[in-house]
Amino acid sequence: MMPSAPLTYASPKPYRIAYLLADPGVPFYDSQKGASIHARSLIKAFEQEGCEVDVYVMRRGRARLRGFRVQQVPMSRLTRWFHETALSQGALARLLWRRGGAGARPSAPNRLTALGALLWQRDFWRGVRCEVGGRAPDAVYARHAYMAYGYARLQRAWRTPMALEVNAVLTVEKGLRGEIGFARLTEKIERDAFAASKIVLPVTEELKEQTLRLCDEPRKVIVTPNAVDLDLFRPRELRRPGPDREFVIGCVHSYKIYHGMDVLLEAARRLRAEIPRLRALLVGGGDGLPEVRRRAAEMGLGDCVEFTDTVDHAEVPGLLRRFDVGVAPYHGPFNQYGCPMKLYEYMAAKVPMVVASWGDIPNVLTHGENALLHREGDPQSLADMILRVYRDAALGERLAEKAYEYVQNHTWRARARDILARLKAPNDT
User: Fold this and answer.
1) What residues contact residue 383 under an 8 Å CB cut-off, 6+ apart?
2) Dist CA 409 CA 413 (whole Å)
3) Which residue spans within 58-198 are E strands per DSSP?
4) Any idea what the CATH number is for the domain that residue 206 is in?
5) Which of 155, 173, 219, 285 to pair with 350, CA 20 to 30 A apart?
6) pLDDT, tens digit, for every residue of 185-200?
């Protein structure tokens, strides 16, 4: 009698996701840009959940990080020619562009910019379609982008469920900035992308409201905020404020106009008399950094304000360990629909938070429970709240502990599990 062959079992096939990033403003490997970090963090979480993720991007970036299957979709010669001649500082551009006023740097007319975006989106759609060929993925995850009409076309060609992450509704954002080129076409592309998606994932409540104006299926629009990697951001060592040691006010930002550095500097100036060894640690870089440096020196804060300039995201956890309080003094009308990732990182590091009651922040944090919220644009309100944390160590510890408990359910893996469950669910649920 012949011996029986050993039984073999086929391992289950991994769930295959095509991650589409058709936004030239988000280089995939950028180590400082929040959108790039968001993309890589979620992809890593999908892979930790057993998925196989192929990433298609417009711009890969200069750095290379292991563990990602990334393909930069090439730009066609026509699109490259258009961008180099009509959208750069060449002779044709100078002929076509307008000036904003005497001495102002010329800016490309909105329709030229929109046409350049359409050409690049055409290349992206064709390139991804060619690269994938006949082996359609099990699901698509796409980051919403300007003029990205290829998302809906690819979803319909592949007949696979799509999740669409929305960090801005472009008809609204471009309209508010006066940058919209073809308003009706922009709206049609957004409506098509929302219609083609099985789930639409705005990162804030405000974006959900904006999305619902263009999406006819409210049930599939689900607020999905930013998150944090708890393996990277760990609780800092408990430190009690006191007159014999530095008290560090920390902030992570990129010096955008709405980040409120003017509010923070004025609050720090007012606090110097109350906190003997005050120090402000400003983590990050950006175009606005030189002006903030100059302003700090003018206010006599040069000896107590420390600037790190641009740092890699992997360095941020170590810097948070120096914070006695983490601030986010946002103010103004710009970008109020955003979801600051730094809040989740502060929470994971157990840093007591004093942040502005601005935009979506009150939907994430509760005043007196897991943070102190100050009036936006008000340096005295910010100073008063920081002083409460300085004078009452137990308060700071309690706020940090509650925030840490909250963030346990706001990890990238939790986000990935929820998205996967929704993508795999039957269509009538």
Assistant:
1) 267, 270, 271, 274
2) 9
3) 69-72, 139-143, 162-166
4) 3.40.50.2000
5) 285
6) 999 999 999 999 999 9
pLDDT surpasses 90 at 106: no
Average model confidence (pLDDT) across the chain = 91
Same domain, 304 and 370: yes
Hey, which bits of 221-335 come out as E strands? 247-252, 278-283, 305-307, 325-328
pTM of the entire predicted model: 0.91
pLDDT per position as a tens digit, 11-21: 578 999 999 99
**Domain residue limits at 196:** 15-91+106-220
State the Cα–Cα distance between residues 423 and 162, nearest whole angstrom.
7
149 with 269, same domain: the answer is: no
Number of domains in the chain: 2
Q: Quick one: 263 and 353 in the same domain?
A: yes
Q: Report the range of poorest mean pLDDT among 30-34, 152-156, 375-379.
A: 30-34
